[in-house]
Write a structure and sequence with these properties.
The complex is a heterodimer. The termini of chain A are far apart. Chain A is built from no helices and 11 strands. In chain A, the strands form 2 sheets. In chain A, strands 2, 4, 5, 6, 9, 10 and 11 form a 7-stranded mixed β-sheet that branches. A 4-stranded antiparallel β-sheet of chain A has the order 1-3-8-7, with no helix packed on it. Chain A is mostly beta strands. Chain B is mainly beta. Chain B has no helices and 11 strands. In chain B, a hairpin with a 3-residue loop joins strand 5 and strand 6. Chain B is globular. The chains are: A mainly beta, B mainly beta. Chains A and B meet through strand 5 and strand 10 of A and strand 4 and strand 10 of B.
Chain lengths: 125, 106
């Protein structure tokens, strides 16, 4: 049974780097049918797509975050990661990692079908 | 960027009601439209993908339709567990969510 577990610091200082890791268990991150991505939800607001990585290392990023964002994969650990630089209070959010299943040929734009429980990250001094 | 606009932003209904939520894209998205249910403190739950395909395990009272730029999510005979926020998401070009529709009990 697939399980995703996000981890990382819950508090990051302004101008610092937000780093999160998602560990996948119960399935291989190297499946050709899956992509692995991140979304976030700021307090009291809606969902925002962050970025996606394929096991080969191919990535796609939300254009509004692209200049600050790196999403990477470590197949030896069955993990993928998020790094967001130069954070501000606007980056305070509940961050979710998830699996994107290529149901119908959307590729790296595939919908999310499984998630972790979310990691709350607060940007504050 | 493709913008997604949901309506209404909030909706009050009773158990047993039929409700419809609409999502409009800023350009045609060729049926690459997905719907999620989100409850506070829980991860989103994929309900429908590719406009009308019910995700495994989702009750049949949920249905989706649409084409081009306009899409709808319909919930027949609302159940207590259906009160939540619903988001549409286009996956035609990048991934963009609508702003959400909060469904609460009248």
């Amino acid at each position: 049974q697939l399980k995703l577990q996000g981890s990382g610091p819950g508090l990051v200082k302004p101008s610092g780097t937000l780093s999160l890791t998602c560990t996948v268990s119960g399935d291989t991150i190297m499946s050709s049918s899956y992509y692995w991505g991140w979304i976030r939800q700021p307090p009291g607001r809606g969902l925002e797509y962050i970025g996606t990585v394929y096991y080969t290392g191919t990535t796609y990023y939300n254009p509004s975050l692209r200049s600050r964002l790196t999403v990477s994969v470590d197949t030896s650990k069955n993990q993928f990661s998020l790094k967001l630089t130069s954070v501000t209070a606007a980056d305070t959010a509940l961050y979710y990692c998830g699996r994107q299943l290529d149901f119908y040929g959307s590729g790296i734009y595939s919908p999310f079908d499984s998630w972790d429980q979310g990691t709350l990250v607060t940007v504050s001094s | 960027d493709i913008q997604m606009t949901q309506s209404p932003s909030s909706l009050s209904a009773s158990v047993g009601d039929r409700v419809t939520i609409t999502c409009r894209a800023s350009q045609s998205i060729d049926n690459y439209l997905n719907w999620y249910q989100k409850k506070p403190g829980k991860a989103p739950n994929l309900l429908i993908w590719a406009t009308s395909t019910l995700q495994t395990g989702v009750p049949s009272r949920f249905s989706g339709s649409g084409s081009g730029t306009d899409y709808t999510l319909t919930i027949d005979s609302l159940q207590p567990e259906d009160f939540a926020t619903y988001y549409c998401q286009q996956s035609y070009l990048s991934l963009t969510f609508g702003q959400g529709t909060r469904l609460d009990i009248k």
